[in-house]
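Exercise: predict the fold of this chain.
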Amino acid sequence: MTFTADKATYLRTHATMAALAMAAGMLILWIAGNPHIWTGAIGGLAAVVVRGWYLMDEELAHTWTREGDALHGPAGRVVPLDQIEKARAIGSAVQLITRAGDKHLIKFQPDPQAVIAQIDAARASAGSAP
């Protein structure tokens, strides 16, 4: 079982973030009384585009794999299946919450519910499902 970041999902997520940032920028300028509220849209779009471009290679390289009875993620993260208390979808990501309260994200998944189902099945087969 391997979970890799999906480029189309990454781009779709950033398009949503850009729309929200544009609206927020315009709202803030409107509340502040700035007569040029349209510049908030440009600023919000620019911020998300630069961020997305800068981080894309790194984020798309993140892979989570099941090795034995644990999930191994980027930066040496290891999450034993029997320590996962909850897996839930947050947008295009799956958040893993451990019994100790640690939280890990498997980001930019095209079908987060399918990822959760696979993790739950792996937990059940390892005898660690609730």
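Check your answer against the key: Helices lie at 7-31, 38-60, 112-125.
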